[in-house]
Amino acid sequence: MSARALRLSAGLPARVALGAVALLVALFLVFPVVIVIPLSFSGSEFLSFPPESWSLRWYADFFTTARWLESAWLSIWIAVVAAILATVLGTAAALGLARAKFPGRAVVTAFLLSPLVVPAIIVSIGVYFFYAPLGLVGSPIGIAIAHATLASPFVLVNVTAALAGFDPRLEQAAKNLGASGWSTFRLVTFPIIKPGVMAGAVFAFIASFDEMIVALFITSPGNVTLPIRMWESMRNEISPAIAAVSTLVILLSVSLFFVAARIQARAVARSGGDR
Amino acid sequence: MSLAEPLAPARLGALRARAATPAWLALPLIAFLGVFYLAPVAMMLARAAGEGDWAPLFAAIENQVAQRVFLGTLEIAFVCTLATLVIGYPLALFAALAPPWLARLAIAAVLAPFWSSILIRSYAWMVLLGREGLVNGALGGLGLIEAPIRMLNTTFAVYVGMIHIMLPFMILPIYAALKGIDGRLVQAAENLGASTASVLRHVILPLSLPGVAAGALVVFVLSIGFYVTPALLGGPRDMMVSMLIAQEVDLYNWDLASAYAGGLLVLTLLIVAVASRFVDLGKAMGGRK
Q: Could you tell me the fold of the domain covering B27-118+149-179+206-285?
């Protein structure tokens, strides 16, 4: 072990000052996410903190209101389809780009990653023009396809990272032992990059589930996704109902992140802590 | 990880070449994005060209409101970049110096906001900054203010919300760069009698600059495309380019909207193209959203 972890022999006042600033920044980051949760259990029509009374009425409201439930299911359905599309296409592309060298590889990679930085509103307008003559405006599958284009870079980045720590001689050994290309992928490559694929799929699901701007342009009154429903009610009023929906959405994201983290931790443990 | 005896580099190279997965595996995604992402954006750009005379584009360029909105957007993005750097660097440094358990806690705090969408975080700030909100309540309770201050629907609220959302994008690459510094360099400087301040200035800060550059690029580029946060937290005067585009769409001015969108696209790509000479964008995104 040659390199040494970063350490600084600073005086106590400097350490305390740095720690205090870091604590403040951490609170600033976490507080607004956490505050939504107690607000969702408010018993009154108005938002006050701490709530004057506690109740589950906003959750009851959510689970008994058809339009909230329809929007939630629609968003889940769209996110699942988008995540599957993005994961299959993104994983294949990561495999193709990681091992091959060809002219223009950098340009292709930049193009495939560009949905991460191109503002959503630009894609929204283009997709509307593109979908209108095809009759895809207002269709859930149209939204899912658009979301898959935006979510595919998350899969590409995660799988590429997983492939970086992968010894290509393992694939070579499988091929030398007579495995076909597909068997090599199924039995050797995929089990090793699986954590990256799963993480990419989770990010893709959440990217679609939370996406609102593109969906807003190609939605129809009969197909309103959950973020659009939330956006519309936020613009009208600040009621605790949104806090309850937000808490449920946060709960879903947190559980998905934990699933992804567990898969990754298991994989690290299996490979003997090697990363 | 290595299963065999180390191979001579030449032989390893030969094996790598034969083990390659075929490049055509990238084609399905290229085709998919070509049809459902590139073609739509091209159609939008064609709309901005008008009937070949680029009339919508010229109308957009000459529009004084649009000029102000584009400049205002750049200003907001610049302030957000600077603010996230100043606010985020100490936390990144703290996490890089802290023992592992504490560092994990600090990074968990940075990642926590990712558990909720931009929409939910903007809503949280609506609740916190409102007239009857928590911040006004706390300030009043402490006797610092007599009447509630108007914070929601002001530029201040837009900054607070956007800085909150962009901070992780600044902190994570800086943290990664700091973790990559060889601690022996710091040790050597200290052994030679450098004070903490000069170690920070002459060793740690310069070596963390690649992380700072990556973070600044991502924060700036993502900031110029913001829509939800300024729309919910800002007032009528805090219009950003995305809101201007949406406003033209609401008025069915699709040509003008396309011209503004084309301008925003060119601006985004220009910044990325210039910056990518110094920054590895794929690395800067770090596989996180």
A: MetI-like fold (1.10.3720)
